Amino acid sequence: MIDLSNVSKLFTSYLLIGFILFNRCSTRSISIETKRETDESPIVDLLKIGAVSYLSTSPFDSYAETNVDWNSFLGTWNEIKRIDNSFQSGLTEVSATYSLQGDGTIRVTNQGLSASGETRLDGVALIPNPPVGKLKVSFFFPFFFGDYLILRIDRTGYRTALIGGPDPNFLWVFSREKTIPQQVETEYIEYAKTIGYDTNRLLSY
C-alpha cells in the first residue's frame, strides 16, 4: 500500500536537492578549484535538468483528476490507443505496469512488441502531490522527468483511464483489459479534444 506520508517526504527531498543545485550553480565563482568544479559540471548540469523537469508544470495540470486512489491505480494497464511518439514508435501490444517499491517510489515497466521482438523499459515514478492525479516519471532517474496526467479514470473499479502528457502531442487510452467499451473510449476522446489534445492523431497500434 502506498504511504502518502513517504511520498510527500520524497517530494520534499527532491525539492531540496533542486534548491541546493540551483544555489550552487548560481553562486559558483572562479577560484583555485575551478578545474575540479568544471570536471563535476556535467553531472551537476544533468541533476539541474532533473530538478527543473521535476518541478515543471503545464497548462494541462489543471485537468488532472483529484482524490485519486493510488493503490487502486497500481497494476497493469493495456494501451488501447495513443498519439505515437518517438520512444514508442513501431511498438504494438503495449502495456504499462505500476508497482510500489520499498522506498515509496513507483516502478514503471513498459512493455511492447517491435519488429525485433519484445521490448521492455523500466522507470521510476514519483507523486509530487498525492491528492492530484499527476505522476513524474523518469526512465533516466534522476536526470529527467516527464509528466503523466490522469485526465479521466473509472472511479468504480479503476478499469479504464485517459492519460495525457504536458502538451497536446502525448495522449493514451488505457484499459485493464485488451479492449474498452466503445462508449467509454468515445467519451474519453471527446473530452481530450475539448481540452486541447490532438485527438486526430490518436490511433491503435
Automatic annotation (TrEMBL):
<feature type="domain" description="Lipocalin/cytosolic fatty-acid binding">
    <location>
        <begin position="68"/>
        <end position="202"/>
    </location>
</feature>
<dbReference type="InterPro" id="IPR000566">
    <property type="entry name" value="Lipocln_cytosolic_FA-bd_dom"/>
</dbReference>
<dbReference type="InterPro" id="IPR012674">
    <property type="entry name" value="Calycin"/>
</dbReference>
<protein>
    <submittedName>
        <fullName>Lipocalin</fullName>
    </submittedName>
</protein>
<dbReference type="InterPro" id="IPR047202">
    <property type="entry name" value="Lipocalin_Blc-like_dom"/>
</dbReference>
<dbReference type="InterPro" id="IPR002446">
    <property type="entry name" value="Lipocalin_bac"/>
</dbReference>
<dbReference type="Pfam" id="PF08212">
    <property type="entry name" value="Lipocalin_2"/>
</dbReference>
